[in-house]
Design a protein that fits this description.
- The protein has 85 residues and is mostly helical.
- The protein has one domain.
- It is 84% helix and 0% strand.
- Helix 1 runs antiparallel to helix 2.
């Protein structure tokens, strides 16, 4: 149990220094690994799936933020108030 906590802490520290897409992969891998461990000892399979899902969610979030900023810039150039989300 102590080893799992130590590995989780190291992975968490690595996410703070990584790029957002990589952070999504590492965070997803940690969560997926823990979930896979408790679901019939499939730790590596859970970590791999978590990495894929975490990366995809990080990319979607990055695109969503970019679209919101582009809409705000376009509204500012046209003199219109910024959109409310």
């Amino acid at each position: 149990m102590k080893t799992m906590v130590a590995v989780s802490l190291v992975a968490l520290m690595a996410t703070t220094a990584a790029a957002p897409a990589q952070a999504g992969c590492v965070t997803g891998a940690v969560v997926g690994g823990v979930a896979g461990h408790y679901a019939h000892h499939h730790t590596l399979l859970g970590a791999a799936a978590g990495c894929v899902v975490g990366h995809e969610l990080a990319v979607r979030k990055k695109k969503q933020i970019a679209a919101q900023r582009a809409a705000q810039r376009a509204a500012a150039q046209n003199g219109a108030p910024p959109p409310h989300y």
